[in-house]
Design goal:
It contains four helices and seven strands, in the order H-E-H-E-H-E-H-E-E-E-E. It is of the alpha/beta class. It has one domain: Rossmann fold, CATH 3.40.50.620. A five-stranded mixed sheet has the order 3-7-4-5-6, sandwiched between helices. Strands 1-2 form a two-stranded parallel sheet. Helix 3 packs across helix 4. The longest helix has 15 residues.
Length: 165
């Protein structure tokens, strides 16, 4: 498949993750939002979208190779170790291959707590309470930070960058 002229767009689950990070920063629970993309040079368009939404910094790990979830998790581990965030929020799955593995693999590689399929995230000091929908109701887990959270569609409705008045 020829991708040279394809416009890159952010995965909807990742848009939700960026929005949640922005909301946490607005609530005084986060200091800086760093977004990361692993892919070809065209992926910088996706990062620009995240910056326009409200992210503070963007990191592009450039590769023209097809990436698999474990490879992505290993690269993200390096970024996390360098940046030292207290919380990493990812979309729950990739939409190009419907993979739902990267967040869990990243948590395992780092030895961090994880909350998956988040429909609500509450930060209280050094803990994150993550609620998710399960068969028969809701489940809330309390994570000691640093932690990994994967965002479900029910977590929020992303804002989109607007033009000045």
């Amino acid at each position: 498949v020829e991708l040279a002229n394809v416009k890159m767009a952010m995965n909807p689950f990742d848009e939700i993750a960026v929005e949640e990070a922005i909301r946490l920063k607005e609530a005084g629970k986060a200091e800086e939002i760093i977004v990361v993309s692993i892919g070809p040079q065209q992926a910088q368009e996706t990062l620009r979208t995240a910056l326009a939404m409200g992210a503070d910094r963007a990191i592009l790990v450039k590769t023209d190779e097809q990436t698999e979830p474990l490879g992505v998790a290993k690269v993200l581990k390096g970024v996390v170790e360098a940046e030292k965030p207290g919380l990493v929020i990812l979309g729950k799955q990739a939409i190009d291959d419907d993979s739902n593995q990267t967040g869990q693999m990243l948590a395992a590689l780092l030895g961090w707590a994880q909350g998956t399929f988040a429909s609500k995230v509450v930060i209280d000091g050094d803990k994150a309470k993550v609620t998710r929908e399960v068969d028969g109701g809701l489940q809330t887990v309390e994570l000691k930070m640093p932690a990994i959270v994967t965002a479900d569609l029910r977590l929020n409705q992303p804002r989109y960058a607007s033009l000045p008045n």
